[in-house]
Amino acid sequence: MDNNVTETIESNDQAITTKVSDFETIITNLNADRNGFNFDDITDAIKKAIVQVVELEITTWVSEPSTNSGSELQNGQELPKAGNRIHTIVNLVNGDIKNEVGSQFVGSGPYTELREFHLSQVKESREIMQKNIESVHKIYGILMEMLRTRKSSQQSISRS
Asked: Where on the tree of life does the source sit, at the highest rank (predicted)?
C-alpha cells in the first residue's frame, strides 16, 4: 500500500518536493490504540524509511512570468521550463548521479551563476541524507535492543 502525497515548497525559486509516505503515516498512527507500541510496526516503519531514502532529487529553477496557459500549470503549480532548470538525481545506494542542465545555465546563459548554488545544494543534501540514514540506523539498533530486553524479561517472568 503506497500512500504518497507530494508537498512542494518554494524557496528562492527552488522547488523542494517531499512525499508524505507510508513511513509518516505509520509513525503518526503508532500507539493510536493506546495499548502500547508494537515493535513490529516500528521496525516496519524504519525499514520503509530506509527504502524511501534511496534517491535524492534536487531541482534549481528560475521561474519566468507566464501567461498561465493551462499547459504550464500542474496541480495549480507552475512547472519549470527545461531550459530554466538544473535537475539532479542521486542514487544513494549505488552512487549513480544523473544531471539535467538547462541551456540557460551553460556558456554565457543568464543563470550560469546559479550552477554553483545548485552544486552546493546537492552537496549539502547528500550530507544531510547521510546523517539521516545514520540516525535511522541508530534508532533501529536502539529499538532492536529494547525488543531483545523486553523479550528476555518476558521469558524470565514466564519461567518463574
From this structure: Bacteria
105 in Cβ contact with 112 (< 8 Å)? yes
Radius of gyration of the chain (CA): 22
- The three state secondary structure string of 22-42 is HHHHHHHHCCCCCCCCCHHHH
- What the block records as the C-alpha cell of 32 is 493510536
- pTM over 0.85? The answer is no
Q: Which helix (H) or strand (E) holds 43?
A: helix 39-52
Could you give the CA distance from residue 11 to residue 9 in angstroms, rounded to a whole number? 7
* Contact criterion met (CB below 8 Å) for 20 and 77: no
Is the Cβ–Cβ distance between 80 and 15 less than 8 Å?
Answer: yes
One pLDDT digit (tens) per residue for the chain, 160 residues:
333 444 444 544 555 554 555 666 666 666 555 565 666 777 777 777 777 777 888 999 888 776 555 445 555 667 777 789 999 998 888 889 999 999 999 999 899 899 999 999 998 988 888 888 788 788 878 878 887 887 788 777 777 6
Domains in the chain, number: 1
Cβ pair 121, 14 in contact under 8 A: yes
Supply the range of the domain harboring residue 103. Answer: 5-159
Q: Are 133 and 92 in contact (CB under 8 A)?
A: yes
